[in-house]
Amino acid sequence: MLVHTRKGRWAVWAVFAVVCVPLFALPLLVIATASLSTNWSGVLPSGPTGVHYASATRGESLAALSVSLQTALLASVLALAVGTWAALAAASLGRRGRRLMDALFMLPVAVPSVVVGLAVLVAYSRPPVLLNGTRWIVMLAHTVLVTAFAYQSVSAALARLDPAYAQAAASLGARPWYVLWRVKLPLLLPSLTAAAGLCFALSMGELSATMMLYPPDWMPLPVQIFAATDRGSLFTGSALAVVLMAATSLVLLAVSRIRTEASYR
Amino acid sequence: MPEHMMSEHAISEHAMPEHATPEHTGARGPVGIRFEQVTVAYDGTAVLEDFDLEVGAGEVMALLGPSGSGKTTALRAVAGFVRPARGRVRIGDRDVTDLPPHARDVGMVVQQYALFPHMRVADNVAFGLKARRTPRGQVAERVAEALEMVGMGGYARRYPRELSGGQQQRVALARALAVRPGVLLLDEPLSALDARLRSGMLAELDRLHRELPDVCVLYVTHDQMEALTLADRVAVMDRARLREVGTPRALYRAPRGSFTASFVGSANLLPVTRAGEGKVRFGDTELRVATPGPGDGGAAATLCVRPHRIVLGDGGANVLRGVARAVQWRGATHRVALEVAGHEVVADVPESASTPRVGDRAAVSFAAEDGVLLDD
């Protein structure tokens, strides 16, 4: 504890509440409230209703949720595989090679996602690889965007991993694949699941690149929310946003359960 | 049909050595390690230079030196974690210089144990056996045997984090021994333990080696006590080079260089000049030494005298007179530091009424055979 007196602690909590509640908690609370009302012209909303949720979990909206979940799942699994592979490869490269890999995987983070979306659109709109107009172009863009985060968290974890484990395993007669499968990956598992959760959450919320790419039959939930609020249906949009939030949190919670069962320290 | 089976049998038998490591067939005899002119460099700086050393089968060789002396690098060159820029490393009659670590058939224990935290003790010990595809039936038996050998039979179901440092060290040892390596590499295995545990483990290691007399052990340490206690021979290293190799007794009694003399045991290193056959001059005093050597008068040399070989009084062949500058009580002995001819001479003398006090004039003496002339 940094602050020892009781008064001091209360003061710190008060500052924390004043700064963080309006910044983080209040907007989310407003959305949750709006999603349950029909009218918000005074200080507080009025006309409580569940009708937005009824429509948010049916038909087009339900399809959008399903599209988002599928996209995020595929993108995060691919990103985790590619990112882990790249991080393992980079760790065995020299200093220069590693820097090059770091820079390569930093690109999608450094470049605005609108640009990434446009780049993917232009690159895959013509044969030989014609993905424009299919769902795969959305999944591809999401994968490109989130792989950077998978790569970064796995390489950070690899840098912290004591090389003595892999060396002990090798000296006991284990081939490199066996060492990877039995020692390195199990020790990295907590970081891998954390990376997967991060990728999933980012993909679930991705809007700007998706806007440029999505075909009519593959509209993710964030696009649906944008469309709803754009045409003035703020309350429907709020309900959709709450559904998006809940679905993402549920998946993250499940992933974090894997992590706690697999952590050894 | 029988003929066909016969030939198939013959082929498979012929192919056996290809598929099974000799260890599983029990065909391998005891092996030693040989370093031939091994040089290892990092970024152009040599951390091990022209290292030549032969460790016999069943021998315990200690690599003794301060940090940065290259001793751990030499061990890692045997394990395959560093690649020599020049020279060869052999295990038995195999040249292992270009082999990957997993193909070298060594057992290794490192200072921080490196037990796999996500595996139980039994799985840690079984790891090497499973990696080498030992038949399932044998694994459990050999795990139990290895754990029993280090007295950890009752801990098979525990996780490493549930064990004390000393227990983890035993498990690491069992893990390395379970694969029955021809060569055991120990890299400062006791330095993470406290002093009392360390002497217990030292006795344990000594007993283990008597039980496994064929295993060649390379023991890296900076602690001279460990090296002198355990090793058949000690290789003293300093600044990337091998200084001296010999039995602990020989290194202690008759070191050749001043680095060895001061690193193995404590030593008075006195600057002297040669004064004829078996004689040197230290200040104004002429001393007799046993070391035969050229009597070219006037040449500078260093004389090594162990503090516990120096006695109070002027009864010995070589007498030094001076003033006591410091007297430390060390239980069974007193350490007396005399100033003689501008140099400090330290003597470890038994407790007695005649022990000088600080400022007293005193005489000490030592026998001719206790003065060893060093090469440098």
Automatic annotation (TrEMBL), chain A:
Residue ranges constituting the ABC transmembrane type-1 domain according to the UniProt record: 65-256
Keyword tags: Cell inner membrane, Cell membrane, Membrane, Transmembrane, Transmembrane helix, Transport
InterPro entries per the UniProt record, alphabetical: MetI-like, MetI-like_sf
GO terms for biological process, alphabetical: transmembrane transport
Ranges annotated as spanning the membrane: 12-36, 72-91, 103-124, 136-159, 187-214, 234-255
GO cellular component: plasma membrane
Compartments it resides in: Cell inner membrane; Cell membrane
Pfam families: BPD_transp_1
Topology versus the membrane: Multi-pass membrane protein
Membership in a protein family: Belongs to the binding-protein-dependent transport system permease family.
Protein name: ABC transporter permease subunit
Lineage: Bacteria, Bacillati, Actinomycetota, Actinomycetes, Kitasatosporales
